[in-house]
Specification:
34% strand; 2 helices; 8-stranded mixed β-sheet; binds zinc ion
Length: 188
């Protein structure tokens, strides 16, 4: 960041008194512009044993498959965000279930949160951010074409838990740049 969003003056990078990290601080009005991780929220929708995946129409990772997920908005709960993203990306009306996974994507400054979900009626279609939307049997999931490490982790835990008849939640952290220059910027 170069300019203060409050007054428009140039910001400088320095550690404010009493703080422990460098921040963008406005020399004119004194505003400290904190930068914190962003939440990406999604779900694994299931219908009659099959899992709903979307093939991305946008970068990063255009053409690769993922579960419905996206940036959380102000004023909504995690579950509302997950349901909204399912509708926006797959025109799918899902019922959000239990917490499935939390993935700390350290290099992208994001935290990804995924829920289990039920798709009661098999009605779906590509939203503007998807090329196609499809239900997959577990053994047909295109593992080689999954968009993000957080998606891969989440789908694998989902299937393991389902096979074991349990619904715990899982934590992991990703810090590597795995898939090329475009892949680690953001997940929308
Ligand atoms: Zn300012």
């Amino acid at each position: 960041m170069n300019f203060c969003t409050h007054c428009g003056a140039r910001v400088e990078l320095r550690t404010p008194t009493g703080d422990h990290l460098p921040r963008h601080v406005c020399a004119a009005c004194g505003t400290v512009h904190y930068q914190n991780p962003r939440l990406v929220v999604g779900c694994v929708p299931e219908h009659a044993g099959r899992i709903l995946l979307c093939r991305r129409a946008i970068e990063p990772r255009r053409g690769f498959w993922t579960v419905p997920a996206g940036f959380m908005e102000n004023g909504e709960t995690l579950q509302q965000a997950a349901a909204r993203e399912s509708y926006e990306e797959a025109l799918a009306r899902v019922e959000i279930g239990s917490l499935l996974s939390i993935v700390h994507v350290l290099h992208a400054h994001q935290v990804h949160v995924f829920f289990r979900a039920l798709l009661p009626v098999a009605e779906f279609a590509p939203g503007p951010e998807s090329l196609e939307v499809e239900l997959f049997d577990a053994h047909d999931i295109p593992w080689g074409d999954i968009a993000f490490p957080s998606t891969d982790f989440t789908l694998r835990r989902y299937l393991e838990d389902r096979a074991a008849g349990r619904e715990p939640h899982h934590f992991t952290a990703v810090s590597r740049r795995v898939t090329g220059p475009a892949a680690d910027e953001a997940q929308a």
